[in-house]
Amino acid sequence: MRIPLILVALLAAPAWAAPVTQAAPNVPEKSPAFPGQTRAEAVVSKTKLTVTEIATGLNKPWGVAILPDGRFLVSEKAAGRLTIVSKDGTKTPLTGTPATDMRNQGGMLGVAAPGDGFVYWSYAEPREGGNGTSVARGHLVGSEIRDVTVIFRQLPTLESAQHYGGRLVFPKDGTLIITLGERSILAGRMQAQKMDSLLGKIVRVNRDGSIPRNNPFVNAPDVRPEIWSYGNRNVQGAALDAKGRLWEVEHGPQGGDELNQIQMGRDYGWPSITYGEEYSGKPIADNATQAPGMEQPIYYWDPVIGPSGLIFHSGKGAPEYKGNIFAGGLRVQSLVRLVLNGDKVVGEERLLTDRKERIRDVIEGPDGAMYLLTDDINGKLLKVTAGK
Asked: Within 10 Å of residue 375's Cβ, how many Cβ atoms?
């Protein structure tokens, strides 16, 4: 008996795969620009994870880095300080750092110890006329930061207590990439695509704060030479992939969190295009999701996950995870895993959901273990390893 061609096609087609269990989209009338741009197939890890609490009692920790001696450098956002955490959980607050504006989303933010003899941190800096994201570096001597130098200031200064960005990424070329926000208020939002402003941008500087000669706009008139990308909203996670390319996760409005692969000099669309809406439910700008000359996100979430912190896993100790993205999930209280095929997200998983903790940062240690920070006034530093 001859089987009809249409039936052959149906038999050969893969079964429809469901996405991660989540609420209905906030903005269902907005459609993805390409298949798989949102609500990818749900996947389930074969790797078993073990969680160990290294330290507790951290005041809204925001960023964590591993020092050369194996201790941890943690920023306590709400306390406006840096703290050393030993492997046994002992906490030693550091002195010598500048004052921070600790209101709302401000305080001490990203931290890094890239092995060049300095420690670096971003923070909400109080200034005349308001505040802004700044980056400083100094030498760690005992429990003190010495020789502190502010190497970057986001300008213009605004009076706002939100959307500071603050992640620090160190490419192998010796530069420093700093993620920023547009400060949330309308006066800042409308500067995200303006090139004479550092609001709503990702910037690239040398480690002493000078401008790299090969930045995309270094010789352009009336353009800030630090700019690497623009049209970003509030970038709270960033990492380099195995090819050295920059990826980031940014907080969108209601229904518009994004994963972007950042290319220098490109416009990522905020606030002209977005897959989200105002928290009031009203449309943003012209309610568009696409526009000429503006980049599409690799992936977006609706409803949002509140992404913060980002890594590409090396696969050490967990071969299944090689090349996977892990991001902290604040809103969804989980560690969010994304499986890639090339530059396309083909799978998503929410891990550690049983803990019901907001994950603020995630980094990978030399042996493949992941270290997480929980976002709480009694925040934790967690170690996540493969195996029982």
From this structure: 22
Angstrom distance (rounded) from CA 79 to CA 101 = 10
**Which pairs with CB-CB distance under 8 Å and at least 24 residues apart come from 273-282?**
275/27, 275/30, 275/32, 275/38, 275/300, 275/302, 276/26, 276/27, 276/252, 276/302, 276/304, 277/26, 277/27, 277/253, 278/253, 278/254, 279/253, 279/254, 281/254
Measured CA to CA, the distance from residue 199 to residue 232 in angstroms comes to 8
Is residue 139 annotated as a catalytic residue, yes or no?
no
Q: Are 268 and 231 a contacting pair, CB within 8 Å?
A: yes
- Gap between the Cα atoms of 119 and 147, Å rounded: 11
Residue partners of 293: CB distance under 8 A and separation at least 6: 267
DSSP 37: S
How distant, in Å, are the alpha carbons of 2, 180, 221, 231, 268 from that of 228?
A: 60, 11, 15, 11, 11
> Residue 5: its pLDDT value, please?
32
pLDDT of residue 188 exceeding 50, the answer is yes
CATH topology of domain 42-386: Neuraminidase (2.120.10)
Residues 203, 212 contacting (CB under 8 angstroms) = no
Band of pLDDT at residue 4, cut at 50, 70 and 90? very low
- Token output for 45: 């890890």
pLDDT score recorded for residue 17: 65
The encoded tokens of residue 358 equal 């907001």
Q: Which two tokens stand for residue 62?
A: 């925001």
Question: Which residues does residue 168 pair with via DSSP β-bridges, in sequence order?
Answer: 178
Is the omega angle on the peptide bond into residue 307 within 30 degrees of 0, that is, cis?
no
Q: Given 139, 163, 251, 313, which residue is catalytic?
A: 163
Q: Which residues pair with 345 in a beta bridge?
A: 340
Q: Looking at this protein, which amino acid is placed at residue 15?
A: A
- Quote the pLDDT of residue 374: 98
Give the mean pLDDT of the chain.
95
Q: What is the pLDDT of residue 387?
A: 80
The reported pLDDT for the residue numbered 227 is 98
Q: What percent of the chain has pLDDT over 70?
A: 95
In the numeric block, the tokens 């996977």 are attached to: 324
- Residue 336 host element (H or E): strand 334-341
Give the pLDDT confidence of 266-295 residue by residue, as tens digits. 999 999 999 999 999 999 999 999 999 999
**pTM over the 0.85 mark:** yes
Amino acid at 327: A
